[in-house]
Amino acid sequence: MDFYAAEDDWPAVLRTVFDLGLFRVFESDSRPDSELREFRTIDEVAPGRHGRHLMLLVVGAGPEPVVRRIDFAPGISDATHRYECRGWGLIQLDYGGLFGAQELRWTHTNHNSEKRALTWAPTLPELGDPAAWDWPAVTSASSKLNRAIRRMAVNKIGSHPVLPHAAQVMTAANLRYEYGTGVHATPLFGMLQP
Q1: Residues contacting residue 11 through CB under 8 Å, at least 6 positions apart
Q2: pLDDT, tens digit, 9 for 90 and up, residues 175-187
Q3: What is the domain range of residue 6?
Q4: For residue 189, which of 14, 18, 98, 133 sits 20 to 30 Å off, Cα-Cα?
């Protein structure tokens, strides 16, 4: 599901994630030269980028996440590596937010289906057997999260829920044209104006 959330909406989204009591929460990618972190409370969620891209493990629905080390090419930066969190049944939660002053990007939550995981399993054997996941539990938890987010919305643009602070940002910045991955202040070339 894609929805609109602004900076001040993000804590409410995180609170919902933790209040549901269904998930273990991991950062999607670690900080450079740091271990991948699991967040046990909303207060532990990292500020900035690493607390904006999360992977949710439904408790009891599958194996531990696979942590993959990614080594950086020498000379690119002072850092040497980072880690990423992976797993067939993990649920992504990626904050979109304001991009400049002219665009509010979708915040996104989604997960693999069992069919997709089975299709891709031969190409990603390091992720293990998709059959090790309780797919109905993953789908159910994901649906509960999506319903909770929809209940927080004060409006919709198309099928995309708009959370309260996102609605304020849209009004203040006159964001009203939806295309690409968000809502914009100016129409796409050739787009009819409402």
Answers
A1: 42
A2: 888 888 888 988 8
A3: 2-184
A4: 98
